[in-house]
Amino acid sequence: xxxxxxxxxxxxxxxxxxxxxxxxxxxxxxxxxxxxxxxxxxxxxxxxxxxxxxxxxxxxxxxxxxxxxxxxxxxxxxx
Amino acid sequence: xxxxxxxxxxxxxxxxxxxxxxxxxxxxxxxxxxxxxxxxxxxxxxxxxxxxxxxxxxxxxxxxxxxxxxxxxxxxxxxxxxxxxxxxxxxxxxxxxxxxxxxxxxxxxxxxxxxxxxxxxxxxxxxxxxxxxxxxxxxxxxxxxx
Lengths: 79, 146
Fold this sequence. Notes:
By secondary structure, chain A is of the alpha+beta class. Chain A is built from 1 helix and 3 strands.
């Protein structure tokens, strides 16, 4: 991993079209501005990781025997 | 076209049963095409079967058949990228996770799958701020639902 030191107001270029700007440092919190092409998705790391983990768990097990019971599942509105 | 599936056997499907995920899904970025299947007619359950990985399949639900007030904000830019708009609104699905039994299955309400049924494109939306959890028990009346 490349580690760089920057000051508020300074920028990092990632490739030709992604710019990270250190906006403000306040105690533990660092505000970062991100300019990137819209096809580049930007997510908070822990949120993205949680969804990756959940998707991996959700990939169906090979054993589908129990799924036949879905026929009997009542559809309920619960929220 | 023929699609190999560990769970469903060999599937002979029409091109219009294939959904393209231009960005893949988190954790499966390289898998961009899935067969979309209803579990049964009128069922609230659906399957996604990867076109290229016979082992990869997901179970999904139609949330509006289970929940009265599930809602989330959608980014217009992202919607436009897969051809969705006010005139062509998305179909919404949530991926289910089955750990032990069907009774304790949970659904991922924090990252719904949005489908453009007209153009056969889809995206899994990552919602950064939502009151709806990653693991919501689908059948909360059952003990041990977490």
